[in-house]
Design goal:
Blueprint (H helix, E strand, L loop, with lengths): L3 H6 L9 E5 L4 H17 L2 E8 L6 H15 L3 E5 L2 H8 L3 H20 L3 E3 L4 H13 L4 H4 L5 E2 L2 E2 L7 H10 L16 H13 L6 H24 L8 E3 H6 L5 H9 L11 H10 L6 E5 L3 E6 L2 E6 L8 E3 L2 E5 L2 E7 L8 E4 L5 E5 L5 E2 L8 E2 H7 L4 H4 L3 E5 L2 E5 L3 E2 L11 E8 L9
Parallel strand pairs: 1-2, 1-4, 2-3, 4-6
Antiparallel strand pairs: 5-6, 7-10, 8-9, 9-10, 11-15, 12-13, 13-21, 14-21, 15-18, 16-17, 18-19, 19-20
Helix pairs in contact: 2-8, 4-5, 6-9, 6-10, 10-12, 12-13
């Protein structure tokens, strides 16, 4: 495995005497990358340090920390470990757990790089990750931006393995007798990426064994074209701010208009994972109205059309904070909730198996998932709301019931099958009422 030509092509190497910080989870990919970089650094005259973030989610996380620390001790390199409360951060920021983990991971990596004076941060994304990412984006109906996949370099973050298939990584581990740890969630087929990796990609490879290589090549082509189109679209943007004149949008070629909106949206401190082509199309339709109007977007973003100008704003509406449910009534935002022990003649909107020590209510967050009875796997709250025609602004206000921090039910959508009581179980009955029509209904 020779990564040096690829790394030189993309200027991934730190300067002589510099430092490369490697993100290490303890899995096979990051172990391979760390080992390779340590030996490459000895030849190319740069130092390597490792960074590991304990996400505070899996029971095996402490095992992973100990493994990474011991590996770094054997390689005789510095190892920085930090613990993060990813679920708590997700609740605080009103985002999904996956997005929360990603943000905290990169914040930790950038902070550690500054402390160590590292010039590059290396992550272990490889060719199979690239193929999976592009296919997932395609299934979601994304455009060239998403189909460009994972970039080889983004600022000081570099991905030396991005053109390396998983098979070569496994061969490297075997050759050098390198142990690694396994993330047990990688076998969970209820997660779309795992299902794609374990089942769908192997079937597609029966049609074309070079499938992954071809997808990566297509992503490279699209990335170059996407960069060029972004440069064209940027010429229509105002120097600062998130307001653009309607006449400027109309003057731009039609295929560039959604791209102009995306670039304008980048100036707001929100993620773009919940934004799709349909959202940008609706915003463009807003600019064709002869009167003023507005359109609510995910993440608390409001698109306003007024006096011939389009403006993106962050809505200044506060969501109620997570609250503990005890027996009796609780006023939570626009909702009135009553928690009581179930009885045969008691009607309830939600009936949960009585387990755990703490029942709480919070807003439904992006990334929340439910495995409803009769479903083949878990589905995101976002997708369930789309199926039930619940608008994004209503979705963000749905009461989500958690037991010991684990999502058990969402009002209007249903109960996760892990919390559906049997005839033998004791149960909690939750009544939910509101005067506002926010799209909820009986679960």
């Amino acid at each position: 495995m020779d990564l040096l030509p690829w790394m030189r092509q993309w200027d991934m190497l730190p300067p002589a005497g510099g430092t490369m910080l490697c993100a290490v989870s303890g899995g096979r990919d990051s172990v391979c990358l760390l080992h390779y970089l340590v030996h490459l650094g000895q030849r190319e005259h740069f130092a390597v340090a490792a960074a590991h973030l304990h996400h505070g989610q899996r029971p095996t996380a402490e095992r992973d920390v100990a493994f990474v620390q011991e590996l770094c001790r054997q390689l005789e390199i510095p190892c920085v470990v930090e613990r993060a409360d990813v679920p708590g951060f997700a609740r605080c920021e009103g985002i999904g757990v996956e997005e929360a983990g990603r943000r905290l991971r990169y914040e930790f990596l950038f902070r550690t790089a500054r402390e160590l004076d590292a010039q590059r941060i290396a992550t272990a994304h490889h060719a199979d990750d690239q193929a999976e990412t592009v296919l997932l984006q395609l299934l979601r109906g994304t455009g060239p931006d998403g189909l460009s996949g994972i970039p080889p370099v983004r600022g000081m973050v570099v991905r030396p393995l991005l053109q390396t298939p998983r098979s070569q990584i496994e061969a490297y581990l075997l050759k050098h007798d390198l142990p690694h740890v396994e993330d047990e969630t990688n076998q969970d087929r209820s997660m779309a990426r795992n299902l794609l990796r374990l089942d769908l990609l192997p079937q597609l490879e029966q049609i074309n064994p070079a499938l992954r290589e071809n997808i990566c090549r297509a992503a490279d082509i699209l990335r170059e074209e996407n960069t060029y189109l972004n440069q064209l679209a940027a010429e229509y943007l105002p120097p600062t701010g998130t307001m653009i004149a309607g006449e400027v949008l109309q003057r731009a070629p039609k295929p560039l208009r959604p791209r102009i909106l995306r670039l304008l949206m980048d100036r707001l401190p929100v993620g773009k994972k919940d934004f799709g082509a349909a959202h940008y199309r609706s915003v463009l339709e807003l600019t064709e109205l002869p009167r003023e109007g507005e359109y609510h977007l995910p993440g608390g973003v409001l698109a306003q059309w007024s006096e011939g100008c389009l403006t993106f704003l962050l809505r200044e509406e506060s969501q109620p904070e997570e609250a503990v449910l005890t027996e009796g009534e609780l006023t939570w935002g626009p909702w009135q909730l009553r928690l009581q022990k179930s009885a045969p003649d008691l009607k309830a909107h939600l009936l949960l198996r009585r387990e755990g020590s703490t029942v709480t209510v919070r807003c439904a967050l992006p990334g929340d998932r439910l495995w409803l009875e009769g479903s083949r796997g878990s589905r995101s709250v976002k997708r369930l709301c789309v199926d039930r025609r619940i608008a994004p602004q209503a979705r963000d206000r749905l009461p989500a019931i958690c037991v010991d921090g684990r999502l058990a039910a969402v009002y209007g959508l249903g109960i996760d099958r892990a919390f559906v009581p049997t005839e033998k179980d004791e149960a909690w009955a939750i009544q939910i009422e509101t005067k506002e029509n926010v799209g909820g209904g009986k679960a």
